[in-house]
Protein 1
Amino acid sequence: MKKFFGNLYIVIIMLFLYLPILTLIVLSFNEAKSMSVFTRFSLKWYGEMFHSKLILGALVNTFSIALLAALIATIIGTMAVIGIDGMKQSTQTVLMGCNNIPMLNADIVTGIALMLSFLMFGISLGYCTILFSHITFCIPYVILSVRPRMNKATDTLFEAALDLGASRGYAFRKVVLPELLPGIASGFLLSFTMSIDDFIITHFTRGAGINTISTLIYSEVKIGIRPSLYALSTVIFLIALVVLLVMNRNNIKNERTAA
Amino acid sequence: MKKIKWVLAAVAVLGMMLCTGCRSGENGEVYVYSYGDYFDQEAIADFEDETGIRVIQDTYDTAEEMYPVIEKGTADYDVIITSDYMIEKMIHNKMLLEVDKKNLPALKNIDSRYMKKSESFDPGNKYSVPYMVGVSGIIYNKKMVGDVKIDSWGDLWNPKFKDSIVMPDSVRDDFMIALRLLGYDQNTSNEKEIKAAAELLKKQKPLVYKYANDSARDLLADGSAAIGVVWNGEYIYTKDLNPDVEFVIPKEGTEFFVDSWAIPKTSKNKANAEKFINYMCKAKVAKKNFDYLYYTTPNEAAMKLIEKKYRNEDAIFPTDETLDMCDTLKTLDTKTTDLYSKYWKEVKAK
Amino acid sequence: MTFSKKWSAPFIVFVIAGTVIPILSIAYYGFTSRDGGITLDNITAMFSANHMQALGLSLLLALVSTLVCLIAAFPMAMVLRDSKFGKQGFTIFVLILPMWMNFLLRTMAWQVLLERAGVINGILQALGLPRQEMMNTPGAVVLGMVYDFLPFMILPIYNAVMKIDSHLIEAAYDLGAGKAYVYRKVILPLCVPGIVSGITMVFIPALTTFVISNMLGGGKVNLIGNIIEQEFTVNSNWYLGSGLSLVMMVFIIISMVLLEKFDKTGEGTFI
């Protein structure tokens, strides 16, 4: 009995989470512009979307920025964790405190602060400023994912490897890095997700002519909802679904056999 | 293994990115900053094909939003299109480059009446070229409104339309309505008058369904709202979607706007900018934009190409008498602008 | 000491360039005025009637949203733990997937659902029921906030709950504790890091958003985030905008302090 209600509750919450998305997907195939009347099945909005330079440009920008920012943030963040590990406790606390600021700070404050400092130093806003800003707010997520993995156990293993005759480089690559890898992977994934989803910080640091999906939608929605945006959201949903499925297929396979 | 996959993906995306970036036109580019949905994208494509210049567009919602971007140099644009009072302010603050009339042979297409009106904010028409003109007015759904005669801004305060009214989301436009209703000048800097207008707007707020600029026409078109404020150009577009809508210019008079092209001082492609502006002034192109937007075009040569039924439509091409009832918005000094901002915040906060 | 401190060099560069300098920039603008003098006006401006009203509304909506998220997320985490669905990979996958959908698209989706001529009303009218007024109200904004931030509340609590050793709970029952007691004294305290993390991830963004109030509030719900955004875009008063932002940072500092207090080991992340 309790199990039934429990599962029902899960289903309700999942429905809540997915209903709007599914609505957009359904509407993207609607011939008419109307939101409440489904006239005919049609792919015309997809056609419009693929022909729109604006939308395609924004798509490319969003994914390229996310990929680059996640990559760079992961590298810098992992290196940081390694470096911080060897510091005094007090220095560590200070650095970790600074690290948490972009994560906890309201997006609007981070975005404005970055914009102001770019302009104060005469850097004009554009693709690179967006990238820099994204890297800045992704690094904390990487550090928080990797740091827990850099603990006493890892240190001990490293020392053991050195004792057994391995060089520092070898021990690092073969012992420490594999220990950190799950944290690195989830840090990367998290950075990628945060970057794709970001609106406010991109909004303030973008400059002329560069749009990400978020900023494009924001300006389009003010004019009036365009069904080509529904097509866009369906495409993004499918991309995300495929990517996450691919990345998780190992986990899901294991769970199937275990269940 | 996993890592290699990621690296490959990254390289692929980088490649894609560089390719689109490389797609710069052979003859350079031009950055255009305008109101949303303001010209036919086909006209832009034609321009790119004809001249080989790549057009990169960006849009903004209100002129107040555009100004700091140009002023602080947040982004560099070559051509902007904006409203009369904003052009006046930018000329005053020396933010625009003089347009070289020699490079604009199509300039002669613009109706001299509108060129003259343009001189009220740009003496000598040195910095700007009119693109679209129009007036603000009330659009309403005659079926939803019923027997009530709509002819005054005051009709937007009618409790019968509670929760069915759409007001603009722009400080100057809303104050224009309230000030005119009270019989004051829409450009006043008298604090008492501004305060009175703010009180009026606050009283109206519970009746308003939404504050929206461009999306107002959609709300009228799908029947979500009964009455709203739009620019005369949006009337035909909306009527196409919903034949029950009507448009009227209130008896208190209204705001007349001239939206013009201008070139910011920070422009990096002045020659291309002038080519772009000139292209937009050509009769065929102006007509194309008219067919897309239905806004009043000041382009006399284009008028000759426009179908009779539009030329005679009073809402699109207002008569001289109507024009006499209208004023353009004037730019205000900092102190007054702050006053308006302060009271607008009060209205929004309520 | 096992590794050289120099590894952290690029990170420190980013901390200085990306965090410290921007905050100093905002402080600079916050404490100066248009004419160039030093002033506290931009900070004290927060206490004017308009701003306090907006701040009050923002606090109210953020608190309501956070509470709703908490009430919805906690049972979800507990149920997930006990049920078949609760295999870690799959659950996190399903919860993260909406996060990958662009946040603006998800908010826009609610516009499509709630509008007068939208989907929900379309269904209601087809069933012969009256149209519901949902858009452009504070309620719509709260709904948008809950919807956008719920995964951020579920994940950390779920993580914390999954880490609880079932043996501890069994032991408590064995020692004669009643169900409610076990919840209060064993499960809840162990979840606290997750709960605190979730609250921070929801409350701060909810407090400072302007996108959700713009898209679902119809210009009628003016939050402090809207005011700050307008100071930068429409009013061109970067000094006032920065001053207000600095005051908002106070809230962030408070939450950082709270996090430190309740979550000393840094476990409460949502990884």
Protein 2
Amino acid sequence: MLAAGLVLAAAVALSVSAFVVRARFLVALLRAAPAVDRSNHVPVRVRNEATIVLGQRKLLQRLGPGLAHAFIFWGFVVLLPTILIAMIGIVDKRSTLPWLGHQGWYALLDDVFAVLVLCGVLAALWIRKVQRPPRFEGSHLGEADLILALIATIATTLLLWHATRIALGLNEWPRQWSPVSNALSHLFARDSATRVLERAFVWTHVLTILAFLAYLPRSKHLHILTAVANVWFGATGPGGRLEPLRFDDPDVPEDQLRFGSGTIADLNFKEVLDTYSCTECGRCQDACPAFATGKLLSPKLVIMGLRDQLLAQDSAPLVPGAVPEDSVWDCVTCGACVQACPVSIEHVDQIIDLRRHLVMVDASFPAEAEPMLRDVERASNPWGKPQSERADWAAGLGVDVLEPGVPAPEYLYWVGCAPSFDERARTAAVSTAKLLKAAGVDFAILGPRESCTGDPARRIGNEYVFQAFAEQNVATLNAAGATKIVTGCPHCFNTLANEYPDFGGAYEVIHHSELLAELVRDGRLEPTSAGGRTITYHDSCYLARHNDVSASPRELVSAVGRPVEMARSGKSTFCCGAGGAHMWMEERGKPINAERVREAAATGADTLAVACPFCTVMLDDGVQTTGAELEVVDVATLLAEAIPDGSPPPVSESRG
Amino acid sequence: MVLVFIENPGDELSQQALVFARALGEEVQAVSIDAGYAPAAWASSIAEVISRRGPSAVIAPGTDRGNELLAHVAARLDLPMAANCTSVTPGDPATVTRVRWGGSLLEEALVHGSPLLLTAAPHAVAAEPVGVEISTLTPSLDGALGVIEHQRATVAGVSLADASVVVSGGRGVGSAEGFAPIEELAALLGAAVGCSRAVTSAGWRPHADQVGQTGTKISPEIYIACGISGATQHMAGAKGAKKILAINPDAEASIFASADYAVIGDLHQVVPAISEEIRKARAR
């Protein structure tokens, strides 16, 4: 008994010290990382722990693999006290944990969850060895096999230990509560061989756990500890907001100013924690439109590359050391990876930080994007059109252009550069203006005083230019006393609603589809449902995924035609290819827009409805490339077509 | 004392560097170098002058050579260098305003280090005569990496960016082979051949031929756009064209909004007809 106790103590000491040595290194890296403030929204963070960690919500986005993981995870949580019970059993085979060790219901839970864990392991092996989904491409497969083998050993030895104890009459709990162990106990006689086996099983069980503990911080399985923290510190607001860089903050000493991520020393606290939390499951890679169209980028390999360079303490530039340069530019910032990630890794923020360094420090970025950056700065729009022509689209529509010094009406209509200047995107602005007029909405545009929100500059990594525009636009909007802003561009929407608050601009921002749906609901616009069109609606990433607007555009689609859905819709939409400043970049590999158009055409629809000027241009190009029989139309235009021209429905007096 | 590197005595940009240097309010001395271009060897000789004369700042014109030379000097002395400055306020650190982003951004920066190493952005100050004697250095080029020979770039045909006539084809051309009449017309006019993004996406022509936002920006006397719808992305690259002749069968195509001359018709009929007329006219 004493000898067993001493051996166990030595094994525990060895395992714990091996764990602590590595854990101290990992914690030191975290402490050295630049801080990022994630102390707000505590109730949301608690809820995220409950749903994402305990409830396994994001894992269960894929039911099969999600359940396999949930069984193993829940089993791990339920079986934690058995570690203590087994250790007590090693020291004294006639003792157990007070109270809990005697409970029949806990023995039942042990049995049920040990079996569920084994089912989870078998399912995981089936997925990895038989199905072999491409999401594991580039992951450490051998490491995963070892981890699964360790888990299986732990669960199996638990069941066998319980079975031998029942056979020997050593069970402190009523045996009828353990259906599985009890059934297995019939394999063992009440003899000395079983007594040896009982010792062997409990030792194997405990030593495997101790070996696992020592191995854990040296493996990707570290996520079982770090994921809890990573979910806690995950972004709580809308997914489209980027952390601003603090150029002008007097509290930040000059030598601590960050210009994105150049070396491992630049990775902030959350970015370091992200790399500790990745277990290489590849769900991000599977969701990534760039990866799906044969580009170099895999969000998983970005995180793995950063992790490997961080842990190697290699201070070489992160690009191309950890991440190839092409990968950095392939990203369309659609956020599909972030949404798919079960442990709240923020791939897009990591990639944007790499871009920021490349653009602002190294001045190294795709040459074809340079005219966009120059034109945004010089002309306040990405195509270098004269600002004086910004309101030309509204000629003859009787739209009020807000003059300086005049207070904003109920709604400020923020048109956006593409609907102002691009001939294909303009139609939606014209339709929106006509509809708002017909419904008697009090609105005005800024005309030449509206400028680019800075979104394309920010997404390509030029935070300087973005912040200059953010400050300028916030000043204009605040001076006009704007409170409610309606916009047709999801990228403007995201910037105005989610990013300008960081620069002193707080507005109620709604998308034109939301306002138009409300007007239809209130009877202020009454479409005569011609019903001729079969319409599939393409969700814009910046509207549906980043800002959760997907019901309103569908209301409009249903009001004017017969809706059909694509498989990838709502928050699980598939990018058009324009996000992340790709509207102004050349695409490598297969075009994303063509891929999406083929999906839309497969629904049998004749109309591809959109609610974003960039989706309009990209998908219209895709239709022409693929020769699909589809008309790309903004939801506002679909609605305008269904309203009898020139005769707006009367607004009843009671509805002031 | 401020040391100014004169690239070519009497040239405008070197004069501007001298005027720029006066802003530091100190005596100005000038050096030029009489040897074949060898940046490392030149820098070594400038560094030697710095250690001998102890200037508080070294200014060079913001030319390719001025920037490269001073970068070498900076690396040699382990000092920071600010390129393309439009103004400087002395101090420790000195404050400079400099041009970044190809002229799109003016950055205010603090420059530490002594001597201060700056190049003067071209045309930030007006050139005027500055009465300074120029001492000439003759560094030894033994074993130095230098320029052996100058060779003028020979471009086959006419470069798209500089061409005074550009004939482009869009999706309406239909195929790579469909460019034959466009190439024929371009040859007759001494023009460069361009295309739209749809064409490069389809793989009919290389990206180097692409006119547009993400391709080449052109500024010809006349731009002949055949079978191009005129998307914003394309027209952003053609806005420098003085006149636009658009050929497109779709009368609603947005290119007609920016075109000075319009032919509504199929380019496969219109373009050969134009070529034919040119040949006839020349035969007369």
